[in-house]
Write a structure and sequence with these properties.
Layout: H1 3-21, E1 25-29, E2 48-58, E3 65-78, E4 81-94, E5 99-106, H2 109-114, H3 128-133, E6 134-138, H4 141-147, H5 150-157, E7 163-168, E8 170-174, H6 182-200
Antiparallel strand pairs: 1-2, 2-3, 3-4, 4-8, 5-6, 5-7, 7-8
Helix pairs in contact: 1-6
Length: about 210
Amino acid sequence: MGFWDIFRSTRKEDLRLVANQLKMEYSPSDDWGTLSLLKDFKLFKIGGRKKIRHLMISGTDYNNTRTSIFDYHFTISTGNSSQTYKQTVFFVQSKELGLPQFYMRPEVFLDKAARLFGKEDIDFVSHEVFSDKYHLTGSDESLIRSTFTPDVLHHFTFNHGWSVEGLNYFLIIYRKKHLMPPEEIKSFYQMCQKVLEMLKEGGFQV
């Protein structure tokens, strides 16, 4: 058995234990067809050979709330070379959500340069640190502003490096290209649940 086989085997057993602690079901592969629900998110439009592994899930009733945490792998090919990227993703599908389409990610130097050419994101005068750290875009600025309540802005002002995408009843949260070790999953889940509850306060009524 090679190193990566040992790593996969160990991760499988560790995440199965984490799922049990969180009272979630565990599957080593995407037995629930989760990937098909995610095609409209920017993360899932990149690359090919897309796979969901180590899926933890709770609440399989589509009329209420279904929460998932999983490893997501995709590959980008350029010429004769390819690179596979992996990250841990939190995904919730809930009829209690009413989110505008938005995409929030860490701001990079190119974003600042793009402003010189008139490409603006959504900034908040009341939370300059948030606006400096994050690039936020979407189709309905007014509704996005009401969704990003002071509690949401405050949270991400002090929690950097996250990407968040919302669309109607769907929400995903992740760190780009970061596959979390099992010992981080529980705190990640708790943080995402906190963000979920805050986002329920904004958005449109459902």
